[in-house]
Amino acid sequence: MKLKALSLLVTAALLSACGGGSDNNSEKPPITPPVVKLTKDEAMTKLLAAQADNYILPAYQTLMDEADKLDAASIMFCAYQAPSESELIELKNAWLALSKAWQFAKAVKMGPESEEFRHYRLQFWPDNNNAVQRGVASLLAAQVIDENAVASLQDGAQGLPALELLIFNQAQDASLLSASNKQDRCLAVMAIAANVKTVATEILALWQHEKIGFVLDFKNGSGEYNTKQAVLEDFITNWFELIEVIKDNKLNNVKGTLIPGYPEKAESYISLSSLENIKTNFSGLKQAYLAGNGYGFDEYLVDIHENTQVNDTILNYFDEIDVLLNDIEKPLSQAVTIQDSRNKLSPLITKIDELRTYLSTDFIQLTGLNPNFNSNDGD
């Protein structure tokens, strides 16, 4: 009995020490940590760093990688004594991959890309005076056809359009498979491809140089910029220019007002990739807006301006444009010659104009950013 009583006393003591089930000692609710609100400068710092690390530098890295692949593909193709159609297709695919990488990066156009005419050396377009055709002819007539000869000529002889003219030309007297001067044409392809690789490599290297890289000024609002806001304003200025170029030069000028339009004015009409260019442009613009998977304008608008509606509207425009682009099943240079396809181009052009208008009104008014943009500045 004593043991049983002692056991009961010990149990009671333990229950008392542990709270014993008393309502007065119930668990306290968890403490919610305070929300850390970013300052505008802190948010801009995150935004610029994310833009550089998640969109710009990866885009230029891909551009350089694809330029390197095209350079290698051109050497391999020209090493064949009698290349076949399938081997030419491999060269064409390498050009298309490089072109896509370039179109994806076109929302940047800052720093090293705009210096020393690198932008035009990669792509001289629109070409209203047949500069590309004349430049390629000059290169083919040169005593020595190499990268130095390419670099010494005007921009029309350099870059993606010149390569497109040489690689995709199907005329009997101009094809890489059948032209009487196909060896010279192959030398020209290798020379231009090497020059493109050099330019793409320069752009990336000058952006990411450890000590003097443009990325430092981009992230910090230093160098040619006075503030981080000035960097953002320069950045979004390029978005406005690209959207305007897409609407006017890439679509309206090609569509014209009557059938058959002006298919020869399409950006990459020889390779039939003009519409794909536009799709990739908008893919790049969306990634620039979102900073890839990093801290983009979608988060910036919420943190600094406590606004979700503007962001939702912008993203909805991107989605609608994507649907309209994918609804056009033919290459652009063919679509403008067919009424049913032209009917699909009109709402696309309207929607792109609506996006540009919305960015220049609601987005600009909300953020207080002032892009230095003149309508139809060109590419």
From TrEMBL:
Residues annotated as domain Imelysin-like: 56-356
UniProt-listed Pfam families: Peptidase_M75
Superkingdom per UniProt: Bacteria
Main location: other
InterPro entries reported in the protein's UniProt record: Imelysin-like, Imelysin-like_IPPA, Imelysin_sf
Places the protein is found: Cell envelope
Signal peptide: 1-17
Keyword terms of this UniProt record: Signal
This protein's name: Imelysin family protein
